[in-house]
Amino acid sequence: MTPDEGREMNGATHLVRALEREGVDVVFGYPGGAIMPVYDALLDSPIRHVLVRHEQGAALAAVGYARSTGGVGVCMATSGPGATNLVTGIADAFADSVPLVAVTGQVASGMLGTDAFQEVDIFGMTMPVVKHSFLVRRTEDLPGVLQEAFHIARSGRPGPVLVDLPKDVATGVASEPTLTAITSDPAPPPPSDLQVRQALDLLRASEQPVLYAGGGVGMAGAVEELRGFVEATGMPTVTTLKGLGVLPTDHECFLGMLGMHGSKAANTAIQGADLLVAVGVRFDDRATGKLAEFAPGAKVIHLDIDPAEVGKLRPPDAPVVGDIRAALRALSVPVEIGPWRSLCLFRKETTAWPYDAPGSGIYAPRLLKALSEASDERTIVSCDVGQHQMWVAQHWRHRHPSEHLSSGGLGTMGFGLPAAMGAATACPDARVINVAGDGSFMMNVQELATVRRYDIPVKILILDNQALGLVRQWQDLFFDGRESEIDLSDNPDFVQLAKCFGIPGMRATRAGQEEDVVRAMLDTDGPFLAHVLIDREANVWPLVPPGADNATMLEGAAR
Amino acid sequence: MTTTYNVRLKRAEGALVRMLGLVGRRGFEPVDLNAAATACGRWIDVHLTVQGERPSDLLARQIERLFDVEQVTFADAVAADGPAAPIARIGVSATG
Question: Which among A162, A285, A455, B2 counts the fewest CB atoms within 10 Å?
């Protein structure tokens, strides 16, 4: 029985009490007309509210909170534009399977469907990008709906849940119902013995296997089991962008990220494999390249909690559906792959990234490597989207997937700063670094005000090539060098901009200043911004052209 | 290829629209639809025929994971064209 059981409260108070029962400590949001009753109720709650400066920042901060903790992130906004501004963040959570509850105010029930002021059908609008959603029709339903929303968001394959709250439901009064606790989902069932036997048969028959691990490993809490599998099998391992960190970057068996900007060792191994052990992956096009020619000689063991993911794009020879942890433990057997393993490790050694770029400018990969190596174990890096994101993927020393926040599925420019805010709020003992591009940074630059207001100690590193670098690179390579709308040479002075928000910063423009940047980033208390100019023409290599197979890797000079 | 499914949905806000939206987004065209509330009022039984080139068992699994979906079955055996190896416990069965 809860302390409030039987007590009459308005819907907004019911909602806030429900958030408290779910253990919510922080909500990211922005008030407005239709959600004002909830903001009134928040005044009497111990829940901390972080006022962002744009609702997209709220949703992405909640994503950062969730990804860094494994818990459910919560954001809220008012109806109409407040709600629509959340949509990108909700879609981001959906694409990357992040547990999120988004609460939106709505016009009063009687006004629904009348084109009322700030009315949009956010329930209908978000259907394709939520795991589930609720339009609450009765005040007395609210506690149960919230309980269910959190359960759905965190159970099975996680995802975002929207709760749309008409104003009259928020102001209506109902007594606190007796709630039956939703017992958290039991651990997902272990895979069947038959599936495990089939997988073991393939594993033992294989001479050239590759472990292909994705974001599902971290979400399933299966990092330790995956590492145990690698230790038992000695299997060469590649990861997706979201899988980075499931095996430490410096582990001998780790060949790198695969795919469009994957390492040569990773892509070569995949293309030559006779078996893929695919764990928590979805055969995303950025990872596979031309699907029909992805790992052409390989049989596939596909481990996933979500049966709808297995066989979606590549039919498995041995599907293993259920608890990834149990499956990995069952498959952790020694295998005879010595010559193949030696070949993969040789290729890894001989194709290692170069860091000796010529020129007088700052070479971004070298700077990122230095910053990463100087950072301690409690460091979380969040990225935006573009060249810098790929450089972080390639050159950062990843230790655990929860320490790398990157918008993998949706590719949301503007993700990095609010996600970093969310992570820093959730993990006050961690050092949180946002590596941004000059294009992406401007997409949620208003959140500098939030950083300052709450003194969130986010360190921001802007790699400024005064262009939309990845688009420019593609235009140069695939559109005959016809550069279209990528020039950002009129960027503001980012150090001055930060100063306007009360955030100190520094500027670096030439090789030899890398150590100054690293020390300032790591040694400055509170928020800090480093503005680093890099070569406009620098490219991300290797690059698998769109539509090509992963063996077709373009390479160019470091600069 | 044409496939017919029987789907039992919770009678919840947006349940039918949500399912039809998913069907379209996953590359199938609904070509016939009958939907009716059950006598008890708790469910909607849907008889849905779709056309599409992607595996029909995959669509069944995608429908099944919607939160309002109670059960999905094939209404015709033609649809049983999934991967050779069975995927256990997906709750989808061919009923001929």
Answer: A455
